[in-house]
Amino acid sequence: MQQKEADTYGKSFENEIGNSPIPALPAILFKCRDRALRLHERTHIMGILNVTPDSFHDGGRYADTDSALRRAGEMIEEGADIIDIGGESTRPGSTGVSEEEELRRVIPLIREIQKRYEVVLSVDTTKEKVAREALREGASIVNDISGLTYSRGIAEAASEYGAGLVVMHTPSRPVDMQRKTEYRSLIEDISDSLRKSVDKALACGVKADGILVDPGFGFGKTAEQNLVILKNLNRFGELGMPVMIGTSNKSFIEKITGGGPEDRLLGTAATVAIGIINGASVVRVHDVASMKQAVRIADAVASAR
């Protein structure tokens, strides 16, 4: 029931705010296995579920299957369209985990969520075997923070299963990415890298309507560079793919607003709203209920005529 409501709320803006019906927008479908998300109707919300002890925001909160299942149910009730499950922290300075450990963390959870809930599942991984096992268990999307630079096999797996694929920009591995923040031309360099990732995906058989691009907020970028990316987000739409953003609770927010890591909620909401106005079609967030309000306001503004 909650999922159906989440799928239709974007159609009723004209009823909520009055005035004449909003003109139809060109169809933007993101296809992932047997699903087709209608991104032109409203911004879609990807809820973050990290089953790790050391992720930068929620590390340790959902490290066991029972607590992770409860959190998945909460996010679905709050309006998440997609649940993105990650078993390896990619915070700055992290060194990663073994393939076996990542599989141990994510596969049982994907299996249990599939039994209990009707929701699109994404796996946040850079490892081909983890992607394949997750897809075998029913995941519909692979979210690759490396943009296929760590493993081309990610795209091959997505193609074989007809899954959606998120390609993100990062200049290096998490362990040293914050020492590699120099760019010839920030927006152009990120766009060029994402274009290469898209080309790799297409060459492996991933369909164009099954790809999202993500400029990679916080991955090899300074606080100021993150702001430049947010301001120029619409430039990434020139790649011809829908844009996803992941600004949620990132440290650049704290550098502007002050406070501590626990004080980034309102700053995150601001970045989500700005991102949508500047062209984001999917927002990846920790706090689904709060961000859904920001999404609905931003969508209403973006659709106003």
Strand content: 15-25%
Find the CATH superfamily. Dihydropteroate synthase-like
> Can you tell me the residue ranges where pLDDT is under 50 for at least 5 consecutive residues?
1-24
| Number of alpha- plus pi-helical segments | 11
The averaged pLDDT comes out at 89
Radius of gyration (Å) = 18 Å
CATH class: Alpha Beta
CATH architecture: Alpha-Beta Barrel
Question: In percent, how helical is the residue content?
Answer: 40-55%
Q: How are the strands of the biggest sheet laid out side by side?
A: 8-7-6-5-4-3-10-9
CATH fold-level label: TIM Barrel
The tally of structural domains comes to: 1
The tally of strands reads: 10
Distance between the termini: 31 Å
The SSE string, one letter per element, is: HHEEEHEHEHEHEHEHEHHEH
Q: How many strands, what sense, and barrel or not for the largest sheet?
A: 8 strands, parallel
Assign an overall shape: globular
The structural class is alpha/beta
Describe how the helices and strands are arranged.
Layout: H1 2-8, H2 13-17, E1 29-32, E2 35-38, E3 44-50, H3 65-78, E4 82-86, H4 99-116, E5 120-124, H5 128-136, E6 141-144, H6 153-161, E7 164-168, H7 186-203, E8 211-214, H8 223-231, E9 243-245, H9 251-257, H10 265-277, E10 280-285, H11 288-303
Parallel strand pairs: 3-4, 3-10, 4-5, 5-6, 6-7, 7-8, 9-10
Antiparallel strand pairs: 1-2
